[in-house]
């Protein structure tokens, strides 16, 4: 007979790489939100889940169970084979630790494959994350990367992360670049996915004396930063990346690839053009239509984003602001490391 495992026990084993976690919910549920690092071996696909759910509501729970068993029986050999290929300790979960995870764990046990079941399922994990954030104590010093649009702040953070430094890529977790153009070419994450990824990284860097983040607003795309992180960000050391505009334009073009996402760019621009002086807005619109993207980006920076950024930058006291004048991302990475090193020595 299978055994249940608590969320604390599961995450402890997962953090030590001593267990493989398998989400047996449908592909769409898995895509919507899951425990980070989980595999997806669904008991039912999306269409099968919908069919069983309809029978449950319109006929009876017993009829739904019988149809579910019929569907699952046909795919049982493949299901077992997929689990048999996973070495080591395993745990399964569904939405609330109900029929799907119980069936999976029971059948696997009958076939000699031991799998624990997460008590309470994904719902328990989500509630656990929310509760952790409600009482999270972020003790590390925070260095905040600021800079005009196109300064490559996310690239800088990821370069630092690759070097082993405690950098949080909040835009990566949100799968959104943070501006009105931010979701172009991307599918933004929801709050559940963002929170799970954020908590995972915060725990990973818990022993570090500091963390590095980007100067984001409270909202990034579809998600909101937790209050404790917003407060810590506002209190942090503000590093301002000062990079030439031509370099910034190059970054934006490489990142957004407007020649591939032209219509999305035009749609996004239409949402802000009323905030730009009419003749300039008209020129930007013409440049976008004519695919003169370099000129359009330059005008957007000079007449919209740079002035907007300058106003927001003035909110921080001078004793917590450091300007890093650099030519490119490589220089920016070294400049940030110099600042972190200097500040740590002074602490």
TrEMBL record:
GO molecular function: tRNA 2-selenouridine synthase activity
Statement: the UniProt record of this protein carries the keyword RNA-binding: no
Pfam family of the protein (one): Rhodanese
One GO BP: tRNA wobble uridine modification
Record's protein name: tRNA 2-selenouridine(34) synthase MnmH
InterPro entries per the UniProt record, alphabetical: AAA_SelU, P-loop_NTPase, Rhodanese-like_dom, Rhodanese-like_dom_sf, SelU
Keyword Methyltransferase belongs to the record: no
Species whose genome carries this gene: Terrilactibacillus tamarindi
Key words of the record: Selenium
Residue span(s) of domain Rhodanese: 15-131
